[in-house]
Amino acid sequence: MVLDVLYGVLSDNALITAFMFVGGLVWLSYLISEKLTRGHIHGSAIAIALGLVLAWYGGLATGGSTGLADLPLFAGVGIMGGAMFRDFAIVATAFGADLGALKRAGFVGAVSIVIGVVLSFIIGGIVAVSFGYTDPIAVTTIGAGAATYIVGPVTGTALGASTDVIALSVAAGLTKSVLVMIGTPFVAPRIGLDNPHAALIYGGLMGTTSGVAGGLAATDPKLVPYGAMTATFYTGVGCLLAPSVLYLGVRLFL
Amino acid sequence: MQRFENEDRDDYRSENERSRQLFRPRARRVDVVIYGVALLAFCMLVGVFVGDLLGAVMGLPANVGGVGIAMILLLVLSNLGSREPTLGPITQKGIGFWSAMYIPIVVAMAARQNVFSALSGGWMAIVAGVAAVAASFALIPVLARWGQGGHHGS
Questions:
Q1: Which value does ipTM take for this structure?
Q2: Distance CA B133, CA A215 (A)
Q3: Is residue A128 within 8 Å of residue B124, measured between CB atoms?
Q4: By CA distance, what is B115's nearest residue in A?
Q5: Is residue A213 a contact partner of residue A90, using CB atoms and an 8 Å limit?
Q6: Taking the model in full, what pTM does it have?
Q7: CB distance B95 to B36 below 8 Å
Q8: Do A32 and A60 belong together in one domain?
Q9: Percentage of residues in chain B with pLDDT exceeding 70?
Q10: Per-domain residue ranges for chain B?
Q11: Which residues 13-42 of chain A have a CB within 8 Å of chain B?
């Protein structure tokens, strides 16, 4: 009976439960960071990695599409980590950002978005071809998925790709997003990702809002507004280019 | 300007004017947390609205730059005052709280990703994702150097 009541309280107050749960997860992550890695791996990087592992478990256990949030007890994690709160917090990080740095990198930032979309698209397309796909629509859709997991299905739907190809494009985009979240803090020192200028370019090249948000959180939260600024235009540019110019480009080759 | 008025207002102001000062204390600014939260909310909603409109104009089912527009709007609105900061310290706390909640929110975001589907999409999806990330990472220093060189000559 006590357990039933407790379960009711926790699931009725889902968002509050999520606050407590994430707080505990962050605490555990900082403990692991300090005790097991002696601070070499930042606590937030561990917290994000643990979150991804839990998300994987949620998908395995329920077959749903929102990770841990598919378990009724953790539905609040879905609200807290959803686009609404994520974007709200990202905008808040801009408070105190350097407007001058944004202006100076305006042009390179814009160029990096277009280069980022085209680069990811070409790489995704090449991988699709090397795995035996020859249909221009399928190759375009998978290439678009390598941009972000929104550009993929938008492009696939516009071109009339089959559902399994669209599912593949989403999987490619999700892999990218997860890898950017985990990988960024490790490669950051090697690629010079330690200043607003590089963060703007990073956001434009990566483009996945979740990936950039998670990657910069684990690297240096001060860089978040710069990366998020360019990343927020990426999906739009991708949806614009992939089903049109890039698709025509693919048809020239295949 | 207000500061100068305060200094000598007792000397020559009429009774009428002084009582108006009492009822309408212009120099004191209300400074509460909700103003910061509301400003942040306003900026985000305007940004997302403009982003959705941009998407609709281009015929895309996507938001184009909504968060970026919201961030610029917040930066501009919070830097309007030239001499003194536009926002009081408590109002700023309303924004600062959400900025500080960023990492926990990102942890929750990680926990709701469709990781299972990403990993069960087969090798092609994984290879495509990994290759795209690796190539993009490699290009960051190249573009960063180009941008810096073009603007600062360093």
A1: 0.84
A2: 12
A3: yes
A4: A56
A5: yes
A6: 0.80
A7: yes
A8: yes
A9: 73
A10: 1-29, 31-113, 114-154
A11: 18-19, 22-23, 25-26, 29
